[in-house]
Amino acid sequence: MQKGSAVRHSKGYPAGVVISNAVKYFILVFFAFWTLIPLVSCLITAFKTDAEYQSTSVMMLPKVVHFQNFVKAFASAHMGRAFLNSGIVLVFVLALSIMISAQLAYVLNRFKFRGNTLIRNLFLFATLLPGVAMQVSVYKIMGTLGFINHLYGYIIMMCGTDVITIYIFIQFMENIPTSLDESGIMDGANYFTIFWRLILPLLKPAIVTSMILKGVGCYNEYYSANLYLQSEKLRTVAISLYTFTGPMGSRYNLICAGVIISLIPALIVFLLCQKQIYTGITAGAVKG
Predict the structure, then answer these.
(1) Please, where are the H alpha helices in the chain?
(2) Residue 237: closest CA among 259, 256, 269, 215
(3) What is the pLDDT of residue 2?
(4) What's the gap between Cα 96 and its chain centre?
(5) Which of the residues in the chain have pLDDT under 50?
(6) Which partner from 46, 72, 81, 160 sits 20 to 30 angstroms from 174, CA to CA?
(7) What is the distance between the alpha carbons of residues 180 and 45, in angstroms, rounded to a whole number?
(8) Reduced to 3 states, what is the DSSP secondary structure of residue 187?
(9) How far apart are CA 187 and CA 182, in angstroms?
(10) pTM for this prediction
(11) What's the pLDDT score for residue 4?
(12) How far apart are CA 174 and CA 219, in angstroms?
């Protein structure tokens, strides 16, 4: 009896486990479905003509696949120049903001001085302030310095202190023993050499995590880019997508085509750097 019951128990699963797994898979499929619907509808709409878009639903497949929308969206919105501007902004913003944040984190983590805790609390308090509430002051400062409608001014503004990036670097540095700094000092290295030669190479997971967070936010930024980059020659990718909107209506088939085009560089970067991205996110999740 005991042997037969053990066999039956090993082959089957309790009803509670089956129902629980079914509910879990249903929830996962349900949310995956609702997450993919906007992307699928955008992809379908991008291949439709103006007449098809106005006469069919967003989920109805086009009769003929048209690629003219992509060509027209790329040319009419000047997306080539927009990609160049976004690339310049991304390179300088990521390089400067990560270097500034890493050095600030090094000072706050390694040097115990009067006011260290106050500075950390002020950074934390800055995260609680909504960015929109400070736009009037920021716009006035940008106008006084002559940074409006200049790409370098926008880059300097976007390189502002990123509190989240600072705390990411601080968490990683807390797991680097101070004996490494002490051994460098004993070998005659100064603090700059210790930071550049010893500490910074160990912060690669933190750098990858920070680049993901900062890069996605900077690439998708629309409000600040539209506010401070008013010239058509300075438009970024996010601004160029609004070329086909106006008081007489919006051409959503061209907008969707532009959205698909704007996703291609991010997809290429993800496919080429997915190992580093996964490593950085996984390492960042267990630090602290």
Answers:
(1) 2-11, 15-46, 50-55, 68-76, 79-110, 116-128, 135-145, 151-158, 163-173, 179-186, 191-193, 204-219, 223-228, 237-240, 252-286
(2) 259
(3) 47
(4) 16
(5) 1-10, 284-288
(6) 160
(7) 57
(8) coil
(9) 9
(10) 0.79
(11) 47
(12) 30
